[in-house]
Amino acid sequence: MRTDILRRTALTAAGLAFTGGAIAGPVTTAHAAPVDNKPASTAQDRKGGERELGVRYEAQPNFYYCGPAAARNALSVQGKNIDVDAMAKLMGTTEAGTNSINDITPVLNKETGRDAYQSVEIRDPAADDTQTDKLRADIVTAIDEGHAVVANIAGTATDTDGTTHSFEGGHYISVVGYRDNGNTVTIADSADPDQATYRMSIDNLADWTATRGYTA
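Request: output the structure for the sequence above.
Response:
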């Protein structure tokens, strides 16, 4: 059942969505740009507590398609190439964005042909240890099973290189890998092909997902 905590507008905002007068996201228009045609990895790729899935990345074609684009990138690790317009229609995506992670979960399950995905909330303003541990475990389990995670995030977070990523109006991302037994994760971000992938600590990702949720 959809809950109020997940009913939040999720915009990537290429300069059009504003929150409190501030632009919610990078002022860029991201065009489709596949950058990785590697096949999805297998269980044999996991070693030393790490695993990366081969995402066939595409950037989102407009400022409000972050939900469909994140889902498309997530499904690409299974060799699927789903049209983002078709997914946007199924998700009810409009120029106001994709309403909640609960609109993405059933589409992912439809395209995978099984109930592999379930929505998980992080209702608090910041994730506690239990919520962070669950996110870590869910990501490791999902990646080990060969499917990516989609998260609905908001606010600003810093990656392992010290680069900040700010989406005050909300955004969707894909998690396509992990290392150090899930303490660091790899993110595929459709917002900007110049920053298509980056790594982030699980603590920062959990807080970034707080007040919203993810599907794994």
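The longest strand covers residues 164-179.
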